[in-house]
TrEMBL record:
Protein name: Hydrolase of the HAD superfamily
Pfam family, one: Hydrolase
Lineage: Bacteria, Bacillati, Actinomycetota, Actinomycetes, Micromonosporales
InterPro entries: HAD-like_sf (IPR036412), HAD-SF_hydro_IA (IPR006439), HAD_sf (IPR023214), S-2-haloacid_dehalogenase (IPR051540)
Superkingdom of origin: Bacteria
Gene3D superfamilies: HAD superfamily/HAD-like (3.40.50.1000)
Species the sequence originates in: Dactylosporangium maewongense
Keywords, comma-separated and alphabetical: Hydrolase
Annotated signal peptide: none
Length: 219
């Protein structure tokens, strides 16, 4: 039987994480603000925790360019930030028709859906207008809440917003950032997806290949 409450990860679960495109865009942002592209890509990777829960796009550019010895002009920062925001909109709107249909089928079956995403501020900004948003009852972003997975608070915030006990929620994710163990720790049942990436291959629980398989998955 389908669970009544489903909690989904975003990147590499509902959409491709677009890792290659992210690297390309950060390289182009580096050129806009006058820093070395590979150094900025590395600085982005090294500050995932800060970007996830604290920094806006503009703060990220200012802080990382500063660490690389450059104080960029405001118009260059604005152009680079706009470039990054356009990437976030593209990535979120790239959710495939099979994913959208699977979500619609879950809702048609009476399920209520939540999103719990470790995402930087531009993804949270892009969310309300993206193709996925109307399918979800609740969306909790680390950049808005100020804590990310696997901190229990982000899962509990989603369950509370759904009006659900965590034990009645099924969490679906690829497994980045220890998110599957984090969901299990608050009492959610867990399904790992490998549709976009085989992120956490040693996770011992059920695995699906596409979201359609959720209907046949017993958790
Ligand atoms: Mg993910």
């Amino acid at each position: 039987m389908l669970p009544r409450f489903l909690v989904f990860d975003l990147f590499h679960t509902l959409v491709d994480g677009a890792d290659g495109e992210r690297d390309r865009v950060v390289g182009e942002m580096a050129e806009m603000v006058g820093v070395d592209p590979s150094a900025l890509r590395q600085a982005y990777r090294d500050t995932w925790d800060e970007r996830l829960t604290r920094w806006s796009v503009e703060e990220t550019i200012h802080i990382l360019a500063g660490r690389l010895g450059v104080t960029p002009a405001e118009d260059a920062v604005a152009r680079a930030a706009a470039h990054r925001r356009a990437l976030a909109r593209r990535v979120l709107d790239a959710a495939g028709p099979a994913t959208l249909e699977a979500l619609d089928a879950l809702r048609a079956g009476g399920a209520r859906l939540a999103l719990v995403s470790n995402a930087t501020s531009e993804a949270a900004e892009a969310w309300p207008a993206c193709v996925l948003a109307p399918r979800f009852d609740v969306a909790v972003f680390s950049s808005v809440l100020g804590v990310g997975k696997p901190d229990p608070r982000i899962y509990l915030a989603a369950a509370a917003a759904l009006g659900a006990d965590p034990a009645d929620c099924v969490y679906v994710g690829d497994g980045a950032d220890g998110e599957l163990a984090g969901a299990a720790a608050v009492g959610m049942r867990v399904v790992r997806t490998v549709e976009h990436k085989d992120t956490d291959p040693t996770w011992p629980g059920p695995v699906i290949r596409t979201l359609r398989d959720l209907a046949d998955c017993s958790v």
